[in-house]
Amino acid sequence: MGSPRGDLISTVLSFFNSNFIQCRCNASFISFVPKKDNPASLNDFWSISLVGCVYKVISKILAYWINRLLSSVINIHRSTFLGGRGMLDIVLMANEIIDFMKKQKEERCIGQSEF
Fold first, then answer.
1. 54: burial class by Cβ within 10 Å (0-12, 13-18, 19+)?
2. Helical H segments across 1-115, by residue range
3. Do the Cβ atoms of 33 and 48 come closer than 8 Å?
4. Using one digit for the tens of pLDDT, what is the confidence trace for 46-84?
5. Domain-by-domain residue ranges, the chain?
6. Smallest Cα–Cα separation from 47: which of 64, 29, 65, 60?
């Protein structure tokens, strides 16, 4: 059995080579880290749960690469995909604009175009 770091790296690489996550990755791991030198009982340890850590690592790697790919595929003017904005920001902005226009009591036109 190798080190936890080596096992994690080999499991992640295995996923990217085979597009398959091994069943053993569903297992939960608990690691005990000593709180002080020469621990004598379980109270002298911190327990760290590593439930699903392989899934988290793989999903973060995939999200990073998808984000890089999407920036080259999606037009920069597509407001839903602007960094730092939520999907509902445009809806809220449109609602504010409509409220403002109603308060002005002048006839105005709002349009949207899709290319």
1. buried
2. 4-18, 53-73, 89-104
3. yes
4. 888 776 777 788 888 888 888 788 777 776 666 555 566
5. 1-73, 75-106
6. 29
